[in-house]
Amino acid sequence: MLIREATAADWPAIWPFFHTIVAAGETYTCPRDLDEATGREMWLLTPPGRTVVAVDDSGTVLGTAKMNPNHMGGASHIASASFMVDPQWAGRGVGRALGEHALAWARAEGYRAMQFNAVVETNTGAVALWKSLGFQIMTTLPEGFLHPTKGYVGLHIMYQQL
């Protein structure tokens, strides 16, 4: 698997799984009816942010990540990132590779830490992955996320010092 900068030409491959994941409403705090133009603007970042894709040997997009400062000004030394893996490639190490890539990027860019602001507690695969990469749950906002089938569930803030 190769992780490379995402380009506008990658968006048609990203949008189908991006849309499926967001519309499911189980893991992202985006509106479930997010339109394509807004999704593209939100996901394909410009500097100081960065968006990448993980591709296989044939160039198939397996997943994507966006990395950026978590806040501006006095808190801009903390990075954040978001990840989406095409469900047909789940469980094959794509998320881990993207997570490791994001951490390496943050270190190389001089960030002091990485913070995830909204990890849905019922997204147990993601929570386990981030813990295995060294993230800690700093706090959980009780009933911070309305899951479409489970009702109100907690929303973790996860953190790793770099």
What topology does this entry show?
Elements: E1 2-5, H1 11-24, H2 36-43, E2 50-55, E3 61-69, E4 78-85, H3 94-108, E5 113-120, H4 124-132, E6 136-147, E7 151-161
Parallel strand pairs: 4-5
Antiparallel strand pairs: 1-2, 2-3, 3-4, 5-7, 6-7
Give a verbal description of the structure.
This protein is of the alpha+beta class and 162 residues long. The protein is built from four helices and seven strands. The protein has a seven-stranded mixed sheet with strand order 1-2-3-4-5-7-6. A hairpin with a 5-residue loop joins strand 2 and strand 3. It is globular, with a radius of gyration of 15 Å. It starts with a strand and ends with a strand.
Short characterization:
By secondary structure, the chain is of the alpha+beta class.
Radius of gyration: 15 Å
The pLDDT mean sits at 96
Query: Sheet bearing the most strands, described?
Result: 7 strands, mixed
Individual helix count: 4
- Content-based structural category: alpha+beta
